[in-house]
UniProtKB/TrEMBL annotation:
Region described as Disordered: spans on this chain: 1-21
Gene Ontology CC annotation, any one: membrane
Name of the protein in question: Two pore segment channel 2
Subcellular compartments: Membrane
Entry annotated with the keyword Transmembrane helix: yes
Signal peptide: none
Membrane topology: Multi-pass membrane protein
Superkingdom of origin: Eukaryota
SUPFAM superfamilies from the UniProt entry: Voltage-gated potassium channels
């Protein structure tokens, strides 16, 4: 030490921890509870892990905030019932104020979401971009429409068609987005069957044009019967649903009953065979993509639980576990209103051997 002081070296004192151990443990517990809550409600929102961001994330997922955003979405969609040309129209000022309030709530919800997610993740998410662009376009349309109305020039509110964007793109509508994704992924798979079906309709339309086009037949209304290929294709397309049966075939049947065999063959091939195949292809492919969505959801749920376990785990012997006291605090944080008997039952199930801790397998389960 004397040589160190002579050389001008000063011993550094250990710096105290920025946060008390109890406070740091509480923050870890809140973070783990946030992961467990996301797994419980199937949320897949990447959020910051700082204490402030975690508190904002809890407030973002509070039921009052979710009820509020659903309320404003319903109000925004129901404005179409009171705007021109509605049966009971309200003044433009009333509907415009209501819409501005809804847009303000949507923008506030978006800003709140930006505060809890990493900036790079937020700006790369197309859902957030869609919401911001829709808000801007709606305000522009509202200003233009109000200005034209002020000078007695009638115009059209074209931004009304964009209102369902808010319903689809907010995180609370994840179930709707999963359904849309499954439908979108199913469409390419059924395209080939649909093209084959349309090819069959066109072939039968050409046959009908050759069979009936030069016969001079007339419909009940006195119009030419099956003389235009596009009209024939449309009538046969409707015939697949049997909505115009047997009216569409009666002029040909009255001319010669043998022509009914043509329509019977068409209905057998396109209604009973093609429609059954089409339905089977749609169902199987939709089920396949929906199964992939559920598998991905289960993986994300397990990943969230793993994150929570890694935060709370301690080593006992040769394995990592969550102690009973921390498990109880976690359950109370995730479900504040859980009853004591229910909590004890969950603990008995999770701690099978009554060892005083919950292992990884039971924690994930």
């Amino acid at each position: 030490p004397g040589a160190g002081r002579a050389a001008g070296v000063r011993r550094l004192r250990p710096q105290p921890s920025e946060e008390p151990p109890a406070l740091e443990e509480d923050q870890d517990l809140l973070l783990a509870a946030a992961y467990v809550s996301d797994a419980q409600y199937n949320r897949n929102v990447p959020f910051e892990t700082s204490p402030r961001a975690i508190r904002l994330y809890y407030f973002y997922n509070h039921w009052t905030m979710q009820v509020a955003i659903y309320f404003f979405i319903c109000v925004d969609l129901s404005l179409a019932l009171f705007e021109e040309p509605a049966l009971f129209p309200l003044p433009f000022l009333a509907t415009s104020i209501a819409e501005v309030l809804c847009l303000t709530a949507f923008f506030g919800r978006l800003v709140h979401f930006a505060k809890v997610t990493p900036q790079m993740v937020f700006w790369k998410d197309t859902k957030n971009i869609c919401i911001m662009v829709t808000i801007a376009l709606t305000l522009i349309d509202l200003i233009i429409y109000g200005s034209l109305e002020a000078v007695n020039i009638h115009s059209v509110r074209w931004s009304r068609a964009l209102r369902p964007v808010f319903l689809i793109n907010f995180p609370e509508s994840r179930q709707i987005r999963r359904t849309f994704r499954s439908i979108r992924n199913t469409l390419p798979d059924i395209l080939y069957v649909f093209l084959l079906f349309m090819f069959s309709v066109m072939i039968f339309s050409l046959m009908a044009l050759k069979l009936f086009g030069d016969r001079g037949l007339r419909t009940v209304e006195g119009l030419p019967y099956f003389t235009n290929i596009l009209e024939i294709a449309f009538e046969l397309y409707v015939l697949v649903t049997t909505a115009n049966s047997p009216d569409v075939m009666m002029p040909a049947y009255n001319f010669n009953w043998w022509y009914s065999l043509y329509f019977i063959t068409y209905i057998i091939i396109n209604t009973y065979i093609f429609m059954s195949v089409f339905l089977a292809v749609v169902y199987n492919n939709y089920r396949k993509h929906l199964k992939n969505e559920i598998r991905k959801l289960a993986y994300l749920k397990r990943h969230k639980m793993m994150e929570a376990f890694n935060i709370l785990k301690v080593k006992v012997g040769t394995e990592f576990v969550v102690m009973e006291a921390r498990w109880r605090r976690l359950a109370r944080t995730v479900m504040p209103h859980i009853s004591s008997p229910h909590l004890e039952l969950l603990l008995r199930i999770s701690d099978e051997g009554q060892k005083g801790y919950v292992d990884k397998m039971n924690f994930l389960r």
